[in-house]
Write a structure and sequence with these properties.
The complex is a heterotrimer of chains A (464), B (331) and C (331).
Chain A lengths: L2 E3 L9 E7 L6 E2 L4 E6 L4 E5 L4 E6 L6 E3 L3 E6 L42 H10 L17 H10 L26 H10 L17 H8 L31 H15 L2 E9 L1 H12 L9 H15 L5 E4 L2 E4 L5 E3 L1 E3 L3 E3 L2 E2 L7 H16 L5 H5 L3 E5 L18 E5 L3 E7 L2 E15 L5 H15 L6
Helix pairs in contact in A: 1-2, 3-4, 7-8, 7-10
Chain B lengths: L7 E5 H15 L3 E5 L15 H5 L4 E3 L4 H13 L3 E8 L7 H8 L2 H4 L9 E6 L14 H4 L6 E3 L4 H6 L1 H6 L4 E6 L6 E5 L11 E4 L4 E5 L4 H13 L4 E5 L2 E3 L3 H11 L2 E8 L4 H13 L8 E5 L8 H7 L3 H12 L1
Parallel strand pairs in B: 2-3, 2-4, 4-5, 5-7, 6-7, 10-11, 10-13, 13-14
Antiparallel strand pairs in B: 1-8, 6-12, 9-11
Chain C lengths: L6 H32 L14 H8 L7 E3 L5 H7 L3 H8 L17 E2 L4 E2 L9 H13 L6 E6 L6 H13 L3 E7 L2 E2 L2 E2 H4 L5 H6 L4 E6 L3 H16 L5 E6 L17 H8 L3 H11 L5 H24 L19
Parallel strand pairs in C: 1-4, 4-5, 5-9, 8-9
Antiparallel strand pairs in C: 2-3, 6-7
Classes of the chains: A alpha+beta (464), B alpha/beta (331), C alpha/beta (331).
Chain lengths: 464, 331, 331
């Protein structure tokens, strides 16, 4: 039995109101005959029957608002015997809806009330801790104005609202959240720099990459508790990784001051004939591609590393009044970074690397140091640092040891000098090597021995 | 960079575009040029000068002032197998044909479930800088770049003026070509055998490591000039020419920003809701963790273009503003 | 049966019977769509052509398979009369993947390129420039096709109309402008929209051969259309037919029809094009009552089958959403 349902009369119609019936129960209707008037919130429309039949029973009263698809009346097929017409029902067609067009939502006139405060004003009030409902508005119709809110805020005592920007007790001790660029944060994480301790900021008050790079430029921080005394000295853990150090030059200044204050430095120096090395490098580089050529700096590092292995008393740390040897030789290489910063990251297990590997590691380390992509381990692990200022032009470097290391090797520029060899005068490429030593750990004799070994190794470059 | 073996000719942007038109008309009889004053007048900007005499009135077709009519006619002709190049004198007049461009050209393929293709090319002159006042100075490339179903190109160099039209004609979908009015007289060397260019990629016009400047069309020369000024101060700016405004080649400019960590977008449109906002949003979406500074934009002031010269210059993006923005992001 | 029994007479009778059938087919289809829309099966906007069947059927008699058609959102009759399969049209109304536009277009965007049926346009007068372009291509390629452009009295007010009749006359394009004047542009009566309501007369002023036609008499429409198309094909230039007709139902499904009174509708219903022809055929004895009933039953069955097929047809997968915006294969 096909029923007469509330039709969809538009794309946005979900429901309609039955205004009046145009037929009565019991009437015969044909396809196309108007059945009812429906109101769709926009206007009233006559709706037709799509079937032939007899109107059996109205299921919805005029005035009712029902969803599209709701059955409004049941229809009996035409060839059935006429069905019972419910006796008690009054004829539908003459019924007029109770009070004219059904009430439409939202069309009533509102009572005359003050306008609600707009969101910006509500936000402003919240920030100042002002309760809008307690205010008498001075605007039209009693509307609350910004001036009303400000006046109320001034009058009341400051209340501890989270958004409040005014000073409150304890505010001075709570750290101001530091703004940092996304890239700066990422760098800080990669370099092990504690962002909260970076005091320098860029022109806009935020921490940028440059400030983080500066902070990462210093070497190892003061070491916390030493390894247990019971541990065999031959195999000692390197000191626990230090936390990120702090800002740039300020921290370098602090570190170097401490080094000078605490470490009794001694210095030994020697001039070394670099002829055999440079000659050997020249010959072996001829067989290498340009990008694989070995520079003297790499050879010097390798030689130093081997020497450090020969003299373990200079390869390690002064920790809590005792010397702790390093587990291996990790030479720190001092690198100058743009912005005035200095980093001295480690080449791990330098003595085990071949000369080409040392060269590659050096090149890579310098590049990454300059672009701020060093790893935490590299900053934390040097057991002995080399500072090669040869390309800066000085002949001799008398450097400051990086605590808690116990020695620093300084290398000057290669200088052509008159040289006496086997009683004959010649001109040789020479370099000045200076060892700074921590007198608590070793004495000048140890330093001298170190340099002698180094010099010896440099005379036999093929063994590097 | 030219080598001794490649012949090079001093050319203007206008001549390069004319050569492209000539080549297209000569090589494919389905191609024809249609628009106001393209024939007898020789083209409002003299781009099609001489082509009527060379190819005749059927191939170089003057139209009445009926933008909607002849742009829609271009759509219909493209559907029916021709390869029309419709010239709308300037983007300012394209507003009269917006319905045909958006509701027909861009949309017919989709509405028909893929049956109808519209291989139409529409060329328009765009931009300000010649004191033509408010109704003749719009830069609406950003509006068009908003529409799915079309491709939008902005040739800023001689190579692109010469080489973009051919691939645009071969494209099976509508392609809009925007020619900035101040570029027509730009001159320089162009290889004699300069040919079709890629119409999908943005290009790095100048390499740099400190920040990325992103621009297109008439703003490209100003951006390059700003980069030179910055270089004198040791700030090396990388300059990216978008070339293709839809679909945007964000792979190129985000790769650049990931390297330089800083970006400034230069766009002659009004800032609000401009193409530069889209570029900036994509950089934020894709390069957030590499950004050392917020992405800044240098756009036209939010004012209808004034006639007085000093006001127009103040309203448009200028190298000084680009330099200032660059300094701000570098810090 | 007293109708002429000569072969020619038989053919003519068969033709008239076919005309009745085609119009009835459209009527049954449209009425069923009204019901389906009320039941929520068809969504969006629905504009039915009840009362205007003679225009669609009559004009199509003059066309060949090579001719092209551009229509409006009140296009179901045109599509069916053109031969677009009913299943495809019904499925399109249901938004199914088997629809003639893959379900992407809906009631207002029926496309069938195989039948040279180019939509379906929801922008009043939006299709006219398209028709100009299709005809331009045919003319440039020396193809003998004619493009028929259907539009209403409402479109007559749009600038595109005037641009397009001028272009057609100026360039002597093979276009038949078929203006379905049903006296109302949605709710605005013609005399409230046009200072001069003799549309055929005004069209003639553009240089088109133009004449009014009784749009409720399918035989008159056919005759006029053949005459116009022959003229166009013979090189006589574009033509304009003002097809005076009436829609018995509202503008769209939602329309309280406050702008016209029921008496007027009733008067026009007395000239129902289907009843007019049926009466004529009955009087000449060509059409028997049972033949008509049989025809109606067959058509009802055909429409029901199309509904069932559409109900059971699949939807496009959501993953395919962004397809058919740009072409997927090269030209």
């Amino acid at each position: 039995m096909a029923d007469f349902t509330m039709p969809s009369l538009g794309a946005d119609m979900d429901a309609g109101t039955l205004v009046e019936w145009l037929v009565r129960e019991g009437d015969t209707v044909h396809r196309g005959d108007p059945m009812a008037v429906v109101d769709t919130d926009k206007s009233a429309i006559e709706v037709e029957s799509f079937d032939d039949g007899v109107v059996e029973r109205f299921l919805v009263e005029p005035g009712a608002r029902v969803a599209v698809g709701t059955t409004l009346a049941s229809l009996a097929p035409l060839d059935d015997a006429p069905t019972k017409v419910p006796a008690a029902r009054s004829p539908g067609a003459a019924t007029t809806p109770a009070a004219g067009p059904p009430a439409r939502h939202g069309h009533h006139r509102r009572p005359h009330t003050p306008r609600a405060a707009p969101p910006p004003l509500r936000h402003h009030a919240a920030e100042l801790g002002v309760d809008l409902t307690t205010l008498a508005g001075s605007g039209p119709d009693g509307t609350v104005t910004r001036a009303d809110v400000d006046r109320a805020a001034r009058a009341s005592a400051p209340s501890p609202l989270p958004l409040q920007r005014r000073a409150e007790p304890g505010a001075a001790t709570r750290p101001r959240p530091r703004r940092a660029s996304p890239y700066a944060r990422r760098l800080a994480a990669e370099l092990g720099v504690d962002l909260a301790s970076v005091t320098e900021v860029g022109g806009d008050g935020a921490v940028h990459a440059a400030q983080v790079l500066g902070a990462a430029s210093t070497a190892v921080a003061p070491v916390p508790p030493p390894p247990p005394a019971a541990t065999s000295p031959a195999r000692v853990e390197p000191p626990p990784k230090p936390r990120g150090t702090g800002a740039s030059r300020t921290t370098i200044a602090a570190l170097m001051s401490r080094a000078k204050r605490e470490i009794p430095h001694y210095y030994v120096a020697t001039t070394v004939d670099l002829g055999p090395l440079t000659e050997w490098l020249r010959r072996s580089n001829r067989e290498r591609g340009v990008s694989e050529r070995i520079l003297p700096a790499a050879a010097l590092l390798k030689a130093t590393a081997l020497t450090a292995r020969d003299h373990p008393e200079l390869n390690g740390f002064w920790v809590d009044r005792a010397f702790v040897p390093g587990d291996d030789v990790h030479l720190g290489v001092a690198v100058h970074v743009r912005g005035g910063a200095l980093v001295a990251p480690a080449i791990h297990r330098t003595a085990d690397l071949t000369l080409p590997e040392v060269m590659a590691a050096l090149r890579d380390l310098v590049a990454r140091a300059r672009s701020g992509r060093l790893r935490r381990a590299e900053l934390a692990d040097p057991t002995l640092t080399v500072t090669d200022l040869g390309d800066q032009g000085v002949e001799e470097v008398i450097g400051v040891i990086y605590p808690p290391q116990v020695a620093l090797l300084g290398i000057g520029r290669v200088v052509e000098r008159p040289w006496a060899m086997d009683g004959l005068i010649g001109v040789r490429p020479t370099v000045r090597l200076t060892l700074s030593g921590d007198h608590r750990a070793t004495d000048g004799a140890a330093g001298a021995r170190f340099l002698n070994t180094l010099e010896e190794r440099l005379q036999h470059p093929e063994a590097l | 960079m030219t080598s001794a073996t490649v012949a090079v000719r001093e050319t203007t942007y206008r001549e390069a575009m004319r050569d492209a038109l000539r080549e297209a008309l000569a090589e494919d009889e389905r191609v024809f040029l249609m628009g106001e004053d393209v024939g007898r007048y020789g083209g409002c900007f003299a781009v099609s000068l001489g082509l009527l005499e060379e190819f005749g009135p059927e191939r170089v077709r003057d139209t009445p002032l009926s933008e909607s009519g002849f742009v829609g006619a271009g759509v219909g002709a493209a559907i029916a197998g021709m390869r029309p190049i419709v010239e709308i004198m300037t983007v300012n007049f394209s507003l009269l044909a917006l319905d045909q461009i958006l509701n027909n050209a861009a949309t017919l393929q989709h509405m028909s479930g893929g049956q109808v293709h519209v291989p139409l090319v529409i060329r328009m002159t765009t931009g300000a800088g010649r004191q033509l006042a408010a109704q003749h100075s719009h830069s609406l490339e950003g509006w068009y770049a908003h529409i799915p179903g079309i491709k939008v190109l902005a040739p800023a160099t001689l190579e692109d003026a010469r080489g973009m039209l051919g691939p645009a004609l071969e494209d099976p979908d509508p392609v809009l070509l925007f020619e900035h009015g101040t570029l027509y007289n730009a001159s320089g060397p162009l290889a004699e055998d300069a040919g079709p260019v890629d119409i999908q990629r943005a290009v790095v016009r100048r390499q740099g490591r400190d920040l990325t400047l992103i621009s297109y069309g008439g703003s490209l020369p100003k951006t390059l000039a700003a980069a030179e000024t910055l270089a004198a101060d040791g700030i090396e700016a990388e300059v990216v020419d978008l070339r293709v405004l839809r679909p945007l080649d964000d792979a190129t400019f985000t790769e650049s920003v990931r390297r330089t960590h800083r970006a400034v977008v230069v766009d002659e449109g009004w800032r609000s809701g401009s193409l530069s906002a889209e570029v900036s949003a994509r950089i934020t979406e894709q390069c957030f963790y590499d950004l050392d500074s917020p992405v800044l934009r240098v756009c036209s002031a939010e004012v209808p273009m004034p006639y007085a010269r000093h006001l127009e210059e103040a309203a448009l993006p200028q190298p000084e503003a680009i330099v200032a923005a660059a300094r701000a992001v570098v810090g | 049966m007293t109708a002429k029994q000569t072969p020619k007479g038989t053919r003519a009778a068969a033709h008239r019977s076919d005309l009745l059938r085609q119009m009835t087919r459209i009527r049954v289809f449209e009425e069923r769509c009204v019901e389906l829309y009320s039941a929520g099966k068809i969504r969006g906007f629905l504009h039915v052509a009840v009362g205007e069947e003679a225009v669609a059927v009559g004009v199509m008699q003059a066309l060949t398979a090579d001719d092209a058609i551009v229509s409006t959102y009140r296009e179901h009759g045109h599509a069916l009369a053109r031969g677009v399969p009913m299943d495809a049209v019904m499925a399109e109304m249901f938004g199914k993947a088997t629809g003639c536009s893959r379900g992407r277009g809906g009631s207002m965007h029926l496309f069938d390129v195989d039948h040279r049926f180019y939509g379906g346009n929801a922008i009043v007068a939006g299709g006219l420039p398209l028709a100009i372009g299709l005809a331009l291509a045919d003319k440039m390629r020396a193809r003998p096709a004619v493009t028929v452009c259907f539009f209403g009295d409402g479109a007559y007010a749009e600038g595109e109309f005037h641009e397009c009749v001028n272009l057609a006359a100026l360039w002597q394009l093979p276009v038949l402008f078929a203006c379905e004047n049903n006296l109302y542009a949605m709710g605005t009566a013609l005399e409230r929209a046009q200072a001069e309501t003799d549309l055929a007369l005004r069209a003639a002023s553009y240089g088109l051969a133009s004449w009014p036609v009784d749009g409720m008499d399918v035989l008159a429409v056919e005759k006029a259309a053949r005459h116009a198309v022959d003229r166009i094909r013979g090189g006589g230039g574009p033509c304009f037919l003002e097809l005076r007709t009436y829609r018995f139902r509202a503008h769209s499904m939602y329309d309280p029809e406050r702008y016209r009174d029921k008496a007027e509708v009733a008067r026009w219903r007395e000239r129902d094009p289907i009843e007019l022809l049926a009466r004529q055929l009955t009087e000449t004895g060509e059409l028997a009552t049972d033949a008509r009933e049989a025809m109606a039953a067959e058509l009802a069955t055909e429409v029901e089958a199309a509904v069932t097929t559409a109900e059971e047809a699949p939807l496009e997968p959501v993953e395919d959403l962004t397809r058919f915006v740009l072409s997927e294969v090269g030209p």
